[in-house]
Amino acid sequence: MALLEILDRLSRDGAFELAVAHFDHKIRPEAGRERGLVERRARALGLPFMSGSADVPAESRRLRTGMEESARVLRHRFLEECAASWNASAVALGHTRDDQIETILQNIIRGSGFRGLAGMPSRRGVFIRPLLGCGRDELRMFLRRGGVRYAIDPSNRDTAMLRNRVRRVLLPLLRGRFNPAIDAALLRLADNLAEVRDAIEKPVRAVIPRAEERGGVRVPLGKIGRLDDFGLYLLVDVVLRERLGVASDVEKKHYDAVKRLARTGRSGRRLSLPHGAEVVREQRDLLFRRAARRETRPAAVIGGTGRHLLPAWNLSVTVEKARPGTALRAGPRRAAFSSLRFPIVVRPRRPGDRMTPFGMRGSKKLSDLMIDRKIPCSRRDALPVFEDENGPFWVPGVATDERTRVAAGSGEAIRIKLSLLRRGF
To answer: Over the stretch 275-294, which tens digit does the pLDDT of each residue have?
Structure first.
């Protein structure tokens, strides 16, 4: 609530526009009331409001990860989607100086490396933290003076959680028995290590493309090959943390597996990493992305000639008859066929699909044909397979079956043309 008030005041000179997003983790029953508090204040300030939710406890059980980390991953994912839908350049988070101190101590307890001891950065990817220089008590006073209502998460009192034990037990002990200025000492430690981190990571960041590909990051293997093992470790760490939002539960075995994939792996190999991340080797690249549950597009039936709209495939399919002797042009989105029998089915690929491409005598697995054509793994399930009662006869951009070749004396042919309903296919 303090972040909202401060940013609203700063935005009044027109320097930037502001919107508000709230995410319910489905952990506490009070969250519904808190959402109402945030939404009412956003409406009173005349700001757009977006909300979302996810069953964090169920996701934590499914992935066998901690509740706090699952909540963070799902919350950040929602906020990134909000930013994209609103065309926002940044997502401001409300972490305070106290949160930073607690995070550093937590990381010390967990045996973190230098990145963890550097604390939370003021900016990571699209996320910014404008309040890292402000204390919790300062912000409460600010809200009280302004007459702004706020809520306190009751789970902050639960010392079963490590952060709460650090806040309520360890920090008071350190201040009282060891160093009254422990807060300043920890922040100084973080600042020093942040400088070390930035210097070490600078050459690694030069290897990572700024542009992302449908939620993933594609890094050329040629550039990875110039990094030593420690540089590759840093690259993986930076991509997972800053691009995919995976900041915990990544162990040495995961880094070693990515190293083997990058150094000696075969194209098409895939590695699963914690919190739904994965790495795929695709020809000359290493693709880091969030593992999407396999998208299943429904099969569509084309019963005859005419124009057919297939929204699930983002395709308009025009089927027409071509007279004998007509010049027939072929390309990635158009082809002509003989000996087809309606109905034609458009469907996703299936295990065991085979075709006999033009010029071959025997059949070949469709998966092998896609490898031969260097089709990235990330696109293979998105390619439509056209089949009739005799099986697959066309995969646009991959292969056309020999049995449908239009040759001299073939008689009437069927011509199929594809166009996109919207860009991005």
So the answer is: 788 999 988 899 998 875 55
Yes or no: domain 2-184 corresponds to CATH 3.90.550.10: no
For residues 210 and 217, the answer to whether their CB atoms sit within 8 Å is no
In whole angstroms, what is the distance from residue 242 CA to residue 128 CA?
12
Rounded CA-CA distance 43/37 in Å is: 10
221 and 285 in contact (C-beta within 8 Å)? yes
Tell which CATH classification among 3.30.465.60, 3.30.1540.20, 3.90.79.10, 3.40.50.300 matches the domain 206-290: 3.30.465.60
Which amino acid type is present at position 258? V
CB atoms within 10 A of CB 253: 7
* Bridge-based pairing state of the strands 20-24 and 49-53: parallel
pLDDT at 423: 46
Counting residues of the chain whose pLDDT is more than 70, the rounded percentage is 95
Q: Where are the alpha helices (DSSP H) in 92-181?
A: 97-110, 114-117, 136-146, 162-165, 171-177
In 206-284, alpha helices (H): 221-224, 229-238, 252-264
Give the separation between CA 167 and CA 278, rounded to whole angstroms.
34
| Whether the Cβ atoms of residue 411 and residue 335 lie closer than 8 Å to each other | no
- Number of Cβ within 10 Å of residue 130's Cβ equals 17
